[in-house]
Write a structure and sequence with these properties.
GO terms for molecular function: ATP binding. By secondary structure, the protein is of the alpha/beta class. Helix content is 33%, strand content 27%.
Length: 310
Amino acid sequence: MQPIISIKGLQKTYASGHRALKGVDLDIRRGEIFALLGPNGAGKTTMIGAICGLVNATGGSVTVDGYDNVRDYREARARIGLVPQELNTDQFESVRATVAFSRGLFGRPRNPALVEQVLRDLSLWDKRDNEIRELSGGMKRRVMIAKALAHEPDILFLDEPTAGVDVELRRDMWAMVRKLRDRGVTIILTTHYIEEAEEMADRVGVIIGGELILVEETSVLMKKLGRKELIVQLAEPLPAIPPELADWHLELTAEGRELRYVFDRHAERTGVPSLLGRLRDLGINFSDLSTHQSSLEEIFVDLVHGRRAA
């Protein structure tokens, strides 16, 4: 199946000389949820702006549903809904008028029923006649999402959509995202709430310093890079790790009361049974065992630190 977005060699160098994007290649599949992760200044927002035609790339190309986003800008942009980080809308317009006007900007005919449905889906219908300036920050964020959906786009970009919003809005938003995906809408999001990417995304991309260093299925990434940690709580503290345990590369923590062992849970031999057997042979008693699986956040932090150290 042809990707709905195809990015080839995308570059952006600002007048200051800063290279925000360094030859990014990426294909976004139709109907998927794709999470773009990266630290501040990594190039996430620049990349979204370049795809949406809001940032002039200095190299490379972007096609949106087969349309070049420079030569066929109007056709490409009409397929995209964008929820930016900043709240930028007329503060004196009503909620309903703002959303209806956004639909008209893309040449869509008036459709009061659809506008009503979008507002109801985002719990905005009761605020339909309120001016934007009267709304809370969370409600204004909902209006931005409604504006992005008003022209029925095939692709929805969510740039840090839940930053600074309440738990209720986050819950409502992800319920809405699931419904949109079920209808075939492709969703690309950036987020600092990495647990959201882990729960929601089909695939994850990591961008650091303007380079896309990794793109992987979320589940495969967890299996490939996720570590499992065995924590052995000792009955008596150890002053140091005995040399007989060197093969397991253990870490002694909690003032000598815990041994930590990192292993690959998918490996044919994890080393756990032999470690526990060696502890018994050495007369090292333990009171409890527990395990911990690395989260996507921990994997991401490791990738960022490894990249910076390289």
